[in-house]
Amino acid sequence: MCYSILSRSPLFQGLTEDKIKMLLSETPHRIRKFRAGSMIAQSGEPVNSLIIVISGIVKGEMIDSEGKIIKIEDIPAPGALAPAFIFGNKAWFPVNVISVVQTDIMIIDKSVFLKVLMKWDKILVNYLNMISDRTQFLSEKIKFLNFKTIRSKLAHYLLQKTGKEIVSFTLDKTQNELAEFFGVTRPSIARALHELEGMGVIEAKGKNIKILDKQKLARFF
C-alpha cells in the first residue's frame, strides 16, 4: 500500500501517512486489480462500499438518449468512485466506471466505512466536503449536458476554464479528448472552434486559446 498516494486523497486530507497506516491497519479492506479497459462498475449497480483508486486511472461514462457515449470525467489515483452515492435511498452508480490503464482499487465495505466515520471526526468532515464537491460537479455537468449545440457546450467549457479575470489559457485536453468529453466527433469540435474564431469571439493557436469577447461567448448558451 502506498500511503503517500492516499495522503493526497481528499478523504485523508490533514492526516499523516502514519495516521493513515494506523487507520487502515484497524479497518478491514481489500485490494482489487483491473486491466486496462475493464468494467469496474456498471450504471445502476448498487454502491455497497467506499472505493478509492490507489494506482492507475478510471473514467466515468454514460450513454445518452441517442446511444452516444459521453465521457463524464477521468478519476486518477487517489480519487474515490461515486462517494456521494454510498448512502441514501438511491445508492447506485450513476455512470459506468471503466479502467483506462491497469488500475488497483481499495474497497472498504459500507458498514465498515460508517464505523470509520463515527470514530474519526477528521474523516467525517473530509467526506462531507467530498460529497458536497461531487454534488456541485454533477450539477454543473447536468447543466452542461442540457446545452443543445456543440458551440454552446464549447462556449460554456471555455468560459469555465477562464473564469472572470483570465482571458488566455492552454487547453488541458486534445481535440479528440474534447470530442469524447462532449460526446461528439473530433471534426465537430474543430468546426465549432473555427466558427467561434471566425466570429471574432476567440483566438486559437493550437491548444492556446484567447477569449476576445466574453459577453458574446456567453450568449451562445
Report the CATH architecture of the largest domain: Sandwich
β-strand percent reads 15-25%
What is the strand arrangement across the widest sheet?
2-6-4-5
Number of strands: 10
Mean pLDDT, to the nearest integer, reads 89
* Contiguous helical run count: 8
CATH topology of the largest domain: Jelly Rolls
Name the helicity range. 25-40%
Question: Shape from CA axes?
Answer: elongated
* Low-pLDDT stretches: none
* Rg calc: 20 Å
Distance between the termini: 46 Å
CATH homologous superfamily placement of the largest domain? Jelly Rolls
Number of domains: 2
Structural class: alpha+beta
Q: Topology, pairings included?
A:
Elements: H1 3-6, H2 17-25, E1 30-34, E2 39-41, E3 49-55, E4 57-63, E5 69-76, E6 96-99, E7 103-109, H3 110-119, H4 121-145, H5 150-162, E8 168-170, H6 175-182, H7 186-198, E9 202-205, E10 208-211, H8 214-218
Antiparallel strand pairs: 1-7, 2-6, 3-7, 4-5, 4-6, 8-10, 9-10
Helix pairs in contact: 3-4, 6-7
What's the short version?
The chain is an alpha+beta fold. Helix content is 39%, strand content 24%.
Provide a descriptive summary of the structure in words.
This protein starts with a helix and ends with a helix. The model has no long low-confidence stretch (mean pLDDT 89). By secondary structure, it is α+β, with helices and mostly antiparallel strands. A hairpin with a 2-residue loop joins strand 9 and strand 10 (208-211). The chain has helices at 3-6, 17-25, 110-119, 121-145, 150-162, 175-182, 186-198, 214-218; strands at 30-34, 39-41, 49-55, 57-63, 69-76, 96-99, 103-109, 168-170, 202-205, 208-211. The chain folds into two domains: 3-145, Sandwich (Jelly Rolls), CATH 2.60.120; 150-218, Arc Repressor Mutant, subunit A (Orthogonal Bundle). It contains eight helices and ten strands. It has a four-stranded antiparallel beta sheet. Strands 1-7-3 form a three-stranded antiparallel beta sheet. A three-stranded antiparallel beta sheet has the order 8-10-9. Helix content is 39%, strand content 24%.
